[in-house]
Amino acid sequence: MELLCFKSLKFFELHMNSLPYKCDAFLVVALMIRTLWLPTFSNFRGISNTRMSLNPNFDNEKSKFLEVPQIVWGLNNQKIAFARVCLTARMLNRTLLMPSLSASLFYKEVDQLRPISFDKVFQFEEFNARCEGYVRLGRYSEVSDTRDVFELQKGSGRRWMIEKDLEQLREFGRAPYDEYQVIRVVGKNPFLWHDHWPAKDYAKIFECLVLVEEISREADKVVSKIREIGMC
Q1: Residue-level pLDDT at 157
Q2: Could you report the average pLDDT of every consecutive run of 10 residues in the chain (232 residues)?
Q3: What's the pTM value of the predicted model, to 2 decimals?
Q4: Domains of the chain
Q5: SS3 per residue for the chain
């Protein structure tokens, strides 16, 4: 997990030995961690850590799941993509099967796209506790019939518009598609999907994200280091 927190820092340490460059490196890493990964965001003031309002149909749909492609590209893109698939699952009244993230730190860092399980980065149970009744993550072991799957091909091309994308999602929330236990999305990376939700809905998802202890400790080390050189 140290790769996620210190990859940029090591690059700067190897190539730039002056104190100003080191200060800049620590600042970049800290801002990246605090802004992109930690669950509390200054832009979303007023969103509390209490549990979200219940979706009246949510309890009846827990046996149905949404499966999505691996979430890739840079850290910020992964955060946005994760929120997007959560909101897609909520729209379809389905539990989101725990997706895979990637080790990439920057956009199109293709040599680092090896999958990383969501629960190796964020606390799985804590996410469900904070987002209870709003959106839910499930494990693949919860799927009782692995053959009861329908593949949803995400649209692509210049003629595929946001209106068509939204109508496709609505269609897959109705019969006969809603009878399948698993809807598996194939095609585009989630970050490239159309956006149908306001910022406040993304904020609710971000509020439920809590780093695992190992990564959280590494983030604290970076912040402490910045404080030590705060006079530079």
Answers
A1: 62
A2: 41 41 41 41 36 43 85 88 97 96 70 82 96 96 94 77 91 94 92 92 96 82 77 57
A3: 0.71
A4: 1-38+216-232 (no CATH), 52-210 (3.40.50.11340)
A5: CHHHHHHHHHHHHHHCCCHHHHHHHHHHHHHHHHHHCCCCCHHHCCCCCCCCCCCCCCHHHCCCEEECCCCCCCHHHHHHHHHHHHHHHHHCCCEEECCEEECCCCCCCHHHCCEEEHHHCECHHHHHHHCCCCCCEECHHHCCCCCCEEEEECCCCCCCCHHHHHHHHHHCCCCCHHHCCEEEEECCCHHHCCCCCCHHHHHHHHCCCCECHHHHHHHHHHHHHHHHCCCC
